[in-house]
Model the fold of this input.
Amino acid sequence: MRILIAYASLSGNTRELARMVRARCEEAGHAVSWIETDIQGLADAGPDPRHDLYLLGAWTDNAGRTPPEMKRFIAELVEAVGKPAQLAVFGTGETQWGEEYWCGALRRMAAFFGSRYPRLEIEQMPHGERDALKVRRWTDHVLGMAADASPAAESEFEPDNTSRPHADPARLIA
Ligand SMILES: Cc1cc2nc3c(=O)[nH]c(=O)nc-3n(C[C@H](O)[C@H](O)[C@H](O)COP(=O)(O)O)c2cc1C
Done:
């Protein structure tokens, strides 16, 4: 798959998390376009803004808000490709801001896109085997969901796909 990873990071926590997600995607053989929204825009992803999967990462700003750089990037993305169905969010925050605001940007972003993917939320800088495992599991799960949703996977289940014989011809009845 062609995957776009775009992230906003002020002090490096979310950048580190984005690097871990990227490494897992590349290990699985996917091509990653990489955008640091603080200094880059969608044009930096290459001539074609369309990707099979979009992974947006952000820290959370005051009282659960989305950082302005990510908001700007989201506006640019929606202008270019609409609201992609295959989009997941990840990021870092601090629980000391309270349950209501903890990683609030991710909830806002996921709600804006109507994302059906789980969110990956990490306390400050990802560290230790526990966070590493959480990141790997989340990334693998998201990659699996996106692969299931890809046009190639869907075509196998099209009822009028009669070009290939199937072991159970009665499967389309009832
Ligand atoms: C001004 C400011 C406001 C913040 N507000 C929140 C917040 O509402 N909720 C939250 O979970 N974290 C909040 N944080 C914590 C950051 O989101 C957290 O430290 C994050 O890991 C920073 O990521 P970065 O290193 O990628 O910039 C705030 C941090 C700053 C500096």
Observations:
- The chain is about 40% helix and 20% strand.
